[in-house]
Amino acid sequence: MAEAGHLEAVVERCVARCSNDRGELLSVLRGVQGELGCLPRDALTAVAAALGLPRANVEATASFYHLLHGEPHGAYEILFSDNIVDELAGRRELMQYLCEQLWVQPGKLSEDGLVWIATTSDIGLADQAPAALVNGRPLPALDKSRLDLVTELVRERRPLAEWPAMLFAVADNVRRAGPLLGAPFAPGTALTRAAALGAEGVLAEMAAAKLRGRGGAGFPTATKWSSCRRAPDPQRYVVCNADEGEPGTFKDRVLLARHADLVFEGMTLAALAIGAQQGFVYLRGEYADLLIPLEAALARRRRDGLLGRGIGGAAGFDFDIALRLGAGAYICGEESALIESLEGKPGHPRNRPPYPDRCGFRGKPTAVNNVETFACAARIVADGAAAFSALGTADSAGTKLVSVAGDVARPGTYEVPFGIAIRELLAESGAREPQAVQVGGPSGTLVSWREFGRRIAFEDVPTAGAFMVFGRGRDLFEVARNFTRFFAHESCGFCTPCRVGTTLLANTMDKLAAGKGSAWDMTQMKSLMHVMLTMSHCGLGHTAAQPVVQTMAKFPEAFERRLKNLDFEPAFDLDGALATARLITGRDDRWAHLLSREP
Ligand code: SF4
Questions:
Q1: Ligand 1 within 6 A of CB of 494
Q2: How many domains does one find in the chain?
Q3: 315 in the same domain as 235
Q4: Residue 581: inside a domain, yes or no?
Q5: Cβ–Cβ < 8 Å for 109, 72
Q6: Which of 206, 305, 384, 450 has its Cα between 20 and 30 A from that of 349?
Q7: How far is the centre of ligand 1, averaged over its atoms, from the C-alpha of 464 (Å)?
Q8: Whether residue 85 sits in one domain with residue 51
């Protein structure tokens, strides 16, 4: 435990690094945890005092995010990704193997206080599954031999900086490139053209290109930016949503790692279009390893006059970008929850309207767009709207980055024109006897083998990017069960239909898996799903039941073979649970809960 003087010095340092800004509470907490190894109660009290915040507010934020913790996690915190793709690639067995090697139980600190091993939601490496994070750094493509090496390094207490680089080598796996991933881009190209177009000209280009948001909803970018520009408040913000938390997606990681200039240039164009001077990239906590290269790219752009005051020599065009790191909360991918998080609060989605384009970050007009949307905006201004919309369909212009993972020979990122048939992408990625594809992650669409002629497009099967393939041997009930557990874990807890509904749904799926399901449970699940769909506060609650609904509809046999009874059967076996107690006490009377001797 930290000495009081040391703890206060750490808090003081972290608060000062964030300019004593209450809105940077999350960054302060991350900093304190980074130095102390955890967030003890005294640290929260000290942070509250230093920032002049009620302690309850600090506690609420600290307890909301999965990557923050009050108890020490040792010198090595190893978090295995538990996305279904990792599961199918052997995550469970490998994690157990590592726990045995290091003499540690999952979710418990080892007796020597050295290591903590647990699971976490998808970490954005589904193309290199199974994968894990060690102290926030990615460990892709795990197998027993790599884990033997990890065991050795941990036992030797070797600092991470001395671990072999190959353990952390994340492959880009770009399998098909187009204008975003393949065409050369010289930083400043789009800004030079934008200087001639002006703000209205940039908006006109977005409209002519028919650019729609790549986060999944497909809202027209020109409409969003124009609304922001027309907002009466002159202080406006640009926010890049890099909280790529949808299981199975990793294409934003690739864009940020390889084409950060394209993203930053798109944000700068948005700033010109709406009249903003400050932008933020909200980067998911699981991508912390990208912070240093992204900071370096921003510094270079400032040196080159592409950020800062008088961008490109244009007097009055002032704009800069700051990076903000999340701390493990899927719900922060929802734009209003993301803004709450940017303000240092728990990521609870706001009531809407008003939408962020009128009332966003700190109550000011804010344009929130996905990483890929900003990259598209830069290409549109650099190449012209006509070149952009020459690809794709009438309602879905341009290309789409798709993260392909699962039962395929060539997992990775594919830049495809909108309108591509799912069958074509399956063939290109070397899918092995596919029976279904989950497009758009757990909240997206389950596409069965009968529907492989459907197309990736807003007007048919929309997607933020995930494309998880399941071969004929896979049990789709287990896929749906993994997704329901994910939603139960990630529900932010704000509203009852979702908080309780996701857990009940996950428990019922567990009951079915244990062979205790009945037709009664199916009826209960259907009515529960209706409540969640109609009464939840945000999209997570609305879509959390979708994996079950769609699997029931498209693969009913996956459920039917688990239903042994028509009548209700309890999940809890009271008689069995009391067996040991009966043995110890020697009771066999009619009150000892023996099924054969009901009182
Ligand atoms: Fe939170 Fe779920 Fe309610 Fe959305 S629906 S606000 S995630 S509890």
A1: yes
A2: 5
A3: yes
A4: no
A5: yes
A6: 206
A7: 20
A8: no
Pocket lining: 536 vs ligand 1, CB cutoff 6 Å: yes
Are 211 and 261 part of one and the same domain? yes
Q: Are 359 and 220 in a shared domain?
A: yes
Q: What is the CATH number of the domain that holds 439?
A: 3.10.20.600
Last residue of some domain: 123, 141, 171?
Answer: 171
Q: Are residues 41 and 113 in the same domain?
A: no
Verify that 451 and 358 share a domain, yes or no.
Answer: no
Determine the straight-line distance between the first and last CA of the chain, rounded to whole angstroms: 54
pLDDT in tens, the chain (599 residues): 567 789 999 999 999 999 999 999 999 999 999 999 999 999 999 999 999 999 999 999 999 999 999 999 999 999 999 999 999 999 999 999 999 999 999 999 999 999 999 999 999 999 999 999 999 999 999 999 999 999 999 999 999 999 999 999 999 999 999 999 999 999 999 999 999 999 999 999 999 999 999 987 899 999 999 999 999 999 999 999 999 999 999 999 999 999 999 999 999 999 999 999 999 999 999 999 999 999 999 999 999 999 999 998 888 899 999 999 999 999 999 999 999 999 999 999 999 899 999 999 999 999 999 999 999 999 999 999 999 999 999 999 999 999 999 999 999 999 999 999 999 999 999 999 999 999 999 999 999 999 999 999 999 999 999 999 999 999 999 999 999 999 999 999 999 999 999 999 999 999 999 988 888 888 889 999 999 999 999 999 999 999 999 999 999 999 988 877 666 677 777 777 788 888 888 887 777 766 655 44
**150, containing H or E segment:** helix 144-155
Probe residue for ligand 1, chosen from 335, 492, 503, 504 as the CB with the greatest number of ligand atoms within 8 Å: 492
Cβ distance 14 to 2 under 8 Å?
Answer: no
Ligand 1 pocket residue status of 498, Cβ below 6 Å: yes
User: Which of 316, 318, 314, 334 has the alpha carbon at shortest distance from 326?
Assistant: 334
Range of 102's domain? 76-171
Q: Are residues 320 and 204 in the same domain?
A: yes
How far is the centre of ligand 1, averaged over its atoms, from the C-alpha of 346 (Å)? 12
CB distance 119 to 106 below 8 Å: yes
Reduced to 3 states (helix: H, G, I; strand: E, B; else coil), residue 519 is: helix
Is 570 a domain residue? Answer: no
> Who's near 581: CB < 8 A, 6+ residues apart?
587
**Assigned token pair, 384:** 């012209």
Phi, psi of 589 (to 5 degrees): -80, 175
> Using CA atoms, how far apart are residues 506 and 497, in angstroms rounded to an integer?
14
The CATH number given to whatever domain includes residue 294 is 3.40.50.11540
In a domain, 19, yes or no: yes
In a domain, 583, yes or no: no
Q: 6, 12 in Cβ contact below 8 A?
A: no
For ligand 1, the distance from its centroid to the CA atom of residue 537, given in whole angstroms, is 5
Residue whose CA lies nearest to ligand 1 atom number 4: 538
- The answer to whether residues 156 and 246 belong to one domain is no
What is the Å distance from ligand 1's center to 467 Cα? 24
